[in-house]
Amino acid sequence: MGVSKPAKPPEVTADELRASPPLLKFAFANPYNLSLLTGALAASALTLNPLIAVAALGAEALWLLHAPESRALKRLVWDKKIDKLAAELDQQALEAKIATLEQGDQRRVRELIAEEQKIDQLAAQNPSFSGDLMRDELVKSAALVSAYVDMIVTCSRYEHYLASIDPKQLERDRQMWEKRLQSPKQEDARATDIAKKNIEIISKRIEKINEIRQYITVARDQLDLIENTFHLIADQIVTMQSPREMSGQLDQLLSGVEAVRSAAIYTDGLSAERPFQLTEPSAPAPRDS
Are 95 and 1 in contact (CB under 8 A)? Predict the structure, then answer.
């Protein structure tokens, strides 16, 4: 199965937007402010009365000076706008990640997201669940979905990298350099040093490849565990008497995810490693007689 056309990730992340919201832009570029400003300027032009334009520009300056820092506007307008834009950016970033996956993994991600939404709906319908307690558990489930996506994207990236490597060829290369090193003809000190460096680098690459394979195995098992636990919670949540009944299951999953994260292997730069090449010194050019 192929990979979908990659979606373009957002230029600004949701975290960056929340940390530094463009409040001045919000204050200026909103339909109410723009309509009032342009209306006043148009009226000034039509009536040939510059005082209207001066008053409008003065009022606009006062608005832009005070509106971005207004606590009332922050609570009533800006925070809601930031939350909406941040949610859109989070969704764009999620779609960009999903688009990098094979279709089978894309289906798994979307099914898990649907299962989380199902759990949210069933929890809302359970009269035994209070809003405050349930909110904490929903935060955990959202964190697990995010970790699930990151893990499956990492697995996919590692698997694509491994597909470009021939382990048997690496092993043959290592054996070849070891034979050269052990050859009784290997008397040149420079050639010996190069052979040792080749063996060292190839051995490190083989070790890293084995670590990557081990990570993929553990991470894929953790992905299955998250899926199965979400299905179990959806089955149980109708009869649960308290959100705390599923809290332990979510906490165990979060602990497992953290353990996988701590064992994550970064493959950046591995593909750039290349063995040293043994080159014999060239013969001196013949002198002119």
Answer: no
Q: Which long-range contacts (CB under 8 A, 24 or more apart) does 214-217 make?
A: 215/158, 215/260, 215/263, 215/264, 215/265, 216/155, 216/158, 216/159, 216/162
C-alpha dihedral sign at 18, 24, 26, 27: positive
pLDDT digits (tens, 9 = 90+) for 65-87: 888 888 888 888 888 888 888 88
pLDDT for residue 107 is more than 70: yes
**What ranges in 183-243 are assigned the alpha helix state H?**
189-236
Neighbours of 124 (CB within 10 A): 12
- Taking the C-alpha atoms of residue 21 and residue 82, their distance in angstroms, rounded to an integer, is 7
Contact 224, 257 (CB under 8 A): no
- Residue 219 contacts residue 213 (beta carbons within 8 Å): no
Residue 259, token pair as written in the block: 């353990």
Q: 209 near 162, Cβ under 8 Å?
A: yes
In whole angstroms, how far apart are CA 284 and each of 167, 281, 288?
Answer: 39, 9, 12
DSSP 8-state assignment for residue 271 = T
132: burial class by Cβ within 10 Å (0-12, 13-18, 19+)?
Answer: exposed
Neighbouring-strand partners of residue 3: 102
Residues near 149 by beta carbon (within 8 Å), at least 6 away in sequence = 94, 97, 98, 109
